[in-house]
Amino acid sequence: MEVSKSELARRLDVSKGRVSQLVRQGMPVLPSGLVDFDACCRWIDQHVDRGHSGWGSTRKPPAAAPPPTAFPARQPVAPLPGPAPAIGADPAKVLLVAKAKRALADAKRAERLERKQAGELLERTEANTYATNFSLLVRDHVLTQAERLAAVLVPMTDEKLIYDLIRRDGTVLLQKLSKAIEASGVAEKAVN
């Protein structure tokens, strides 16, 4: 159905300026200056993020508009791939769904903030520091193991004593890790 840009703005409950923005971003316009309501609704559904008030901005930069060509009196618009957008039927419903999605996103954001304030979540930098410290502790222990044990192991011939000495060295590493975890307080956050 061919409508004027003003009528399109009224039906979509947006300003005339917003319709002009959409046209500049590539929304199809007929040579007569009118727009095909259904084609515009499909274009908006595929190219515009309506999750923000005022419908935000386009999802991707618009392609350069092709040069205007003369159209026959009325060409049927081929359906775009994918599920038929609900926007063609009732733009008010689509706007309502977009507002509901935004409210849900806001609720999830508020829940994350609440969990963070309650100490249930770690900051990414805190987790990175935690992982780095433990990696360095293990790396240092493993890389110096040969230096620590070589002088003691060389004169030994008893396999059981050698095994016990290496095992004790591993136990020392585990005790260092345990103390470091306890000192960091991260284990308490994970349990709560």
On the 0 to 100 scale, the average pLDDT is 77
H-E string: EHHEHHHHHH
Strand order of the largest sheet: 1-2
The number of distinct structural domains comes to 2
Q: Total number of β-strand segments?
A: 2
Class from helix and strand fractions: mainly alpha
Number of helices, where a helix is a run of at least 4 consecutive DSSP H or I residues: 8
Strand content bin: under 5%
| Helix percent band | 55-70%
**Overall 3D geometry?**
rod-shaped
Biggest sheet record: 2 strands, antiparallel
Poorly predicted runs: 56-64
Radius of gyration: 32 Å
Q: CA-to-CA gap between the ends?
A: 59 Å
Characterise this structure.
This protein has 192 residues and is mainly α. It has helices at residues 5-12, 16-24, 37-47, 91-117, 124-143, 145-153, 159-184, 186-191, and strands at residues 2-3, 35-36. It folds into two domains: 2-116, no CATH class; 124-191, no CATH class. The protein is built from eight helices and two strands. The protein is rod-shaped, with a radius of gyration of 32 Å. The model is unreliable at 56-64 (pLDDT under 50).
